[in-house]
C-alpha cells in the first residue's frame, strides 16, 4: 500500500530531529537550540565523534519506528557502525527512554544541553553505541560482529526481529563475511528473524569501501548467494528515499512473516531467501557539502568531524550554525527544548521502543537455569587414582540433562567440535541445528536442533554473546589453542560486563562460559600448531570482578565447576579440562568441598606432618597427574622428606584478596603454602603467570614453577611434559634441588631421575609410545611403581 506524503513527512521530521540531536552531540557544549548566534564557548574544545554513518542510522531508526507502530513489531537495532553513537543516543532521547534511565538528562532545554555536553566529553559517555546507551547490545567499537550478535539474539525468540545495520567498511572484515551464513542456522518455527541492512555510503576513514566500488550486480549476486532477497533503497532526495525505504521495510517484513507462517502453520521448512535491505546514501548526508573548498558530503572527509575548526574558525562556526538550522529545529522542538507533540506521537509505545525493548537489556528477561545437582552425573571413586574416566564425556552426560530441562534457554556453541570434545551425549536430547540440505548419511542434523556448530570461532562467539545479552544461557566449547581466534571478541565482552556492572539500570546477564579442551598437553598427535595455553594469560588481564578461571583436575571436579559456572551471572568463566581418559581423584562430596575452597591440601598425597619440607602444588589435570606421580616417587625414594600436596582448581585463589574477590588473604595463603618453604608448582600454562599472581605473597621468592615453555611437536603425551620439564621425574629433581640440605643426601635419587628421563625419551623414539611404567602407572600410597 503506498505511503501518504503526510506519513513520509512525519518520518522526515523524526529523521531531521535525530540528525539535529546527533550534530549537537558532536559539537555543542551550550546553546543547544542555537537560540542565539554560536560563540566559541558554545563549542567543545575537543571534537570527537563520527558523523559520516549517522544520518543513515537515523534514517533506519525512523523507518523502523513507523513499522513498529503500524504492525506492533517486537524489534531491536544493532548498529554495526557502532561509532555512529550519536544516532543511538539521539533516538533514545527522542523516544523518552534516555530521560527515564538518566533523570538529569530531561526532555527539555537543560536536558538537551546535558545530552550534548556529555557526549565524548570527560566524565560523560563514549562515542560508540556503548553499554551506557539504552537499547544497545552491540557496541560496535570493533567491527565484524553485528550479524552474529543479531542472530544470537533471535535464537529461541520467535517474535523478535533484530535489525542489523552492516556498515560497508565492516563488510570487509573476515568475521562479517563468515556471518552472512548465519541464516542457514535459523529455525523459522522457534527463532525470530534478522533483517540485515547493508548501508553502502562508500567510504571508510580514508578509503573507499570494496562493496561500493564493485559493480552493483556483482554485489547483489554475492548477497543473493549468501541466501538473501535484496531490496535496494538508493538516492539522496530525502522524500524519495523515505518512500523507497518505507516500501522496502514493509516488503521485508512481509517476507519474514510469510516464511515464519509457512513454517509454523504449514510445516514448510524448505529454506527460502531471507530479506535484507541494501541502503545506498551519501556518506555524511545532509552535512556540509564543501568545507574549505573541498568536497565533504559523499566522501571520506565526512567520516568523523566535517568541520574540525569550529571553536577557533569563524567561518567553520558559521557553517555549523547553518548546518544545524538546515534541520529547522523550530519545527521540531519547543522553545523549552521539549520535542513537539508531532514527534512525540511518532515514538512507539512503552517496551516497543527499541531503546526500551527488554531484549536489549536481557537481564530483565533472564530466568535461572534448572540445574540438576552435579552429583547426579558424578562417577564413583573408591580411592584416589583407582579408576579413570574422560572428564568431558562425563560432563556431556550432565549437559544432556541441563539441555533436557532448559530447552528454551540453553544452547551449546562450538566450531565443529562438540563430538570431538566428548560432549555428544547431548545428542540424546537434541540435534545440531541446520537449515540447509540434510543427507541420509548425516547424523544429528535437524532444523530444530539446539547445538550450534559452524567452523568459525568468531561466529560461535558472536552467537553466544547475542544469546546471553538477550537473557539466555550457554556454553562455548573449543580447542584450547584456537580460542585465541576470539581474543578480541572476549576483550569487548569483558569490557561490556565491566561497564554494565556500574550501570544501575542494566540487569545482570548469564555468564559467558568457555570450556577449553583438547588442550596443550593432549595435543601430542596434532603437534606444535595445536599447543598453546595462553588464553588464560589473556583473560587474567581483565578486571578481577569479571573473570574467573578454573582448572579442574578430574571428572567430578569438572562437574562441580560446570554447575557453579552455569548458575553464575555477569562473569566470563574459563574452564580448562581434558577429554582423554584420566584418573579420578575425588568422589562427588570431596570434589564439591574442594571446588568450594578453590584450592586445598590433599592429605592422601602428602607425607609428614604440619611442618612440611616442601610444598608440591599443581593446577590442571596433566600437571596434577605428574605432581601426584612425583609425590609417589618421593614417598618411595625419599620417605624422610615431608611433602605437602596442594591442588588448585580456582586459579584466582592465588591472588591477594585485595586484587581479586576470590583471592586468599595473606594469612590463609601462608597457612597453605607456608611462609618460608620451597614450593614446586606444576602448572597447566605458561609458568610466569603463577609468578605474576603470587608476586606479592610472603613466600614468592621460594616459588619454582614448571609449565609450558613453548616446546612442542607431534610426540607422545609423556614426551610432551618432558620437553617442558613438567614431568614427574623433573619435579622430583626440583624438590631435591630446592629443599635445603637434600642435594648431597639425595644425589643418587636425582641421578636416577635423570637417567629415567633419558630412558623414557629413548623409548618413545624407538617404540613410538610412552615407557610402560609411565603409561601403566597407577597411584599407590604404599607401593608406587619404581622407575
UniProtKB/TrEMBL annotation:
Pfam families, per the entry: XFP, XFP_C, XFP_N
GO molecular function, one term: magnesium ion binding
Residues making up the signal peptide according to the UniProt record: none
Record-annotated membrane-spanning stretches: none
PROSITE patterns, per database record: PHOSPHOKETOLASE_1, PHOSPHOKETOLASE_2
Domain of life, source organism: Bacteria
Keywords from the named record: Lyase, Thiamine pyrophosphate
EC number: 4.1.2.-
Domain Xylulose 5-phosphate/Fructose 6-phosphate phosphoketolase C-terminal: 579-779
CDD domains, sorted: TPP_PK
Region (Disordered): 348-367
Domain Xylulose 5-phosphate/Fructose 6-phosphate phosphoketolase N-terminal residues, every copy: 4-364
GO terms (BP aspect): carbohydrate metabolic process
Co-factor requirement: thiamine diphosphate
Family statement: Belongs to the XFP family.
Record-linked NCBIfam families: PRK05261.1-2, PRK05261.1-4, PRK05261.1-6
Stated name of the protein: Probable phosphoketolase
Organism classification: Bacteria, Bacillati, Actinomycetota, Actinomycetes, Propionibacteriales
